[in-house]
Design a protein that fits this description.
It contains ten helices and no strands. The protein is globular.
């Protein structure tokens, strides 16, 4: 009798965990599908809040905090008010730190976000902040590439950096185009570990390649 009761209890717990997992996966997939449109609609801050709610509910998953950090730093990029960028970037840093803690360590994708955060700080005043935050951003890209040479997002960010760097300092459309073309090829062959792992960046690469013509 006791064995039968324990078996039924284990089945009930298993079914509950499966339903919870299905709910989590469905919520994540729904939000991930909105990433590109949120850039166009400038609704990244709202999407960041949605990912954060998932993260706070799950408590053990690193990817919701990762996506919340990505959406937050993107909202800093999209903000036209430079006086707000530092605070938004700081919030993104808090979120990516939570993601790294739950993941057990930093990884290629979290280094990508840290590079973006440094760039967001630099955007406030590029002339005076380049030495500090430009170097920091480049360093995070190098770490991201080292940890996963197949990841196209660090190369995509390199292309962006070149695109916005004046030609007299080694930037411009020509060197940026080479990097975007390389990133595009990498996106074609890149396979995320799971359906929830990062796969963003191809749409942005296509956009910048058009700007390089």
């Amino acid at each position: 009798m006791k064995k039968a009761f324990l078996l039924l209890a284990m089945i009930a717990v298993g079914n509950s965990l499966f339903a919870q997992s299905e709910k989590y996966t469905a919520a994540m997939k729904k939000n991930i599908a909105l990433l590109d449109s949120a850039v166009k609609n400038n609704s990244m801050a709202d999407l960041a809040n949605s990912f954060t709610r998932i993260a706070d509910a799950e408590k053990t998953q690193w990817l919701p905090y990762y996506y919340a950090a990505y959406c937050t730093v993107m909202s800093a990029y999209l903000s036209e008010d430079n006086s707000k960028k530092d605070a938004i970037a700081d919030k993104a840093e808090e979120l990516i730190t939570k993601a790294e803690t739950l993941a057990g360590a930093a990884n290629s994708e979290t280094h990508v976000i840290r590079s973006m955060i440094a760039s967001a700080h630099m955007m406030v005043d590029p002339q005076t902040r380049w030495q500090q935050y430009g170097m920091q951003s480049s360093g995070e890209i190098a770490k991201a590439k080292e940890m996963d040479p197949t990841n196209p997002r660090p190369v995509y960010l390199e292309g962006q950096a070149k695109f916005y760097t004046p030609e007299q300092f080694g930037g411009g459309k020509a060197p940026a185009k080479e990097l975007f073309e390389k990133a595009l090829g990498m996106f074609e062959s890149f396979k995320p570990k799971t359906e929830l792992d990062p796969a963003w960046g191809k749409a942005g690469t296509d956009y910048f390649l058009e700007q390089c013509k």
